[in-house]
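Quick start: read one record
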Amino acid sequence: MKLSSILIADDHPLLLSGLNTFLLDRNFNVIAKAQDGISAYNSIIKLNPDIAILDVSMPKLTGIEIARKCKKNNIKTKIILITFYKDKALYLESKTLNISGYIFKEFALEEIEECINEVANGTTYFSPKITEFLNIDLNSNSKIDTLTKSEKKILTLIAKNLTTKEISERLFIAPKTIEKHRSNISKKIGLDGKTNSLLIWANENKAMFT
């Protein structure tokens, strides 16, 4: 089987060197390194690596900004983000950019090998530590995928704090129908049906569907 070509980018020379050595020692095919976002993005354009491992926080372009540009320009390189930041909003935004992996730097050497192998095999890898540090349900995306187009539209309006009456008027649908949709959405994403639980969930996870 052909080895996946890998680009790694981090603005900390020691971390970059350490990750590079670690991967080479395990016979991964590292074809390029970069210490800032523009160099990393230009190398992605030029070399078309299978996988790019990007530090979230880099000068000139961040890992998130590179992921945005890759998505906008339909670049096929699969992106793994690594970060020190335990930031829920950052993670949720990254999920909207179709990234393939997300791990915290302090666990990178424990998880990067498995992460690369999963991504190379066409699946995704999001660190199990995410649930521990960010209190995020890693199955949220798959739950959202079960929603119909109408349910997603209603969920987006709920995330904007619109009431059932306001959503009804906006979509020209009877309030009873909106309430039925809300109930179905709650069941599909595993909520308990308590008052405002759907509103709270929608606001916490809106980066995944808006």
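The radius of gyration is 20 Å.
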